[in-house]
Amino acid sequence: FLNGKGPNVKFKFSQVGSPEVSLKSTFSSSGINQTLHQIYAYIEIEVYSIAPKKSKPVLFKFDYLITETVIVGEIPDTYISIPKK
C-alpha cells in the first residue's frame, strides 16, 4: 500500500568481520520407510548499517539449504497402524 512512498533515503552496509558458518544435518520421517535428510549451512554475519547521522551494527542469522535427499527403505508386505491409548 505504501510501497515507494516517502522520501528517498540511501543506506550503505559495511561488513564488520568474517561470517561464521556451521553445518547442520537433520533427519525426519517422510512416509512409510522413507527418511528425509537435509543439510543446512547456518550463517551469522555482522554488518554496519550506515545512514545519514546514524550507524549501528546489525546481526543477520539465517539457514541456507545445501542439499536434500529422500532415503528410501524396503516397502513392507503389510502395514498396520495401531492407535495409542
Q: What is the structure about, briefly put?
A:
The chain has 85 residues and is mostly beta strands. It contains no helices and 4 strands. The mean pLDDT is 83.
Folded structure, characterized:
The chain has 85 residues and is mainly β. The protein has no helices and 4 strands. It has strands spanning 12-15, 20-29, 34-51, 54-72. The radius of gyration is 23 Å and the shape is elongated. It starts with 11 loop residues before the first strand and ends in a 13-residue tail after the last strand. The model has no long low-confidence stretch (mean pLDDT 83).
Question: Can you count the beta strands?
Answer: 4
**H/E order of the elements?**
EEEE
Biggest β-sheet: count, sense, barrel? 4 strands, antiparallel
Q: What is the rounded distance between the termini?
A: 51 Å
Low-pLDDT sequence parts: none
Estimated structural class = mainly beta
Radius of gyration: 23 Å
